[in-house]
Amino acid sequence: METQESALTLALMTQPARATICRALLEAGEEGVPAAELARLAGLSLPRAAHVFQELMQAEVVALAIRERQVCYLLKARRAVREALGYIDSSGLAD
């Protein structure tokens, strides 16, 4: 596994909310998902989710977009996230 995928795998494993957010964004495709919906799916308050979003933006995993007056997030590192989640799932690390 490459360094970027290794770091991303570790980041997703150590905080299940990150993995949940990335899975939702991977499924959403180019449309992205509103921040409030991602927070709800991850079981986080919006302020806590905002911190997670900021971490993922700094790592260049997600991007911010404004859609219909809503803050939405889109997955930028689609291939790296798919590979990291696939590794986590296949190795049983998500259990």
Keywords for this entry:
95 residues, alpha+beta, Arc Repressor Mutant, subunit A, 3-stranded antiparallel beta sheet, 5 helices, globular
Structure summarized in a few sentences:
By secondary structure, the chain is an alpha+beta fold. It is 63% helix and 15% strand.
Structure notes:
- This protein is of the alpha+beta class and 95 residues long.
- The chain has one domain: Winged helix-like DNA-binding domain superfamily/Winged helix DNA-binding domain (Arc Repressor Mutant, subunit A).
- The protein has helices at residues 3-14, 16-28, 35-42, 46-58, 78-91; strands spanning 33-34, 62-67, 70-75.
- The chain is globular.
- The model has no long low-confidence stretch (mean pLDDT 86).
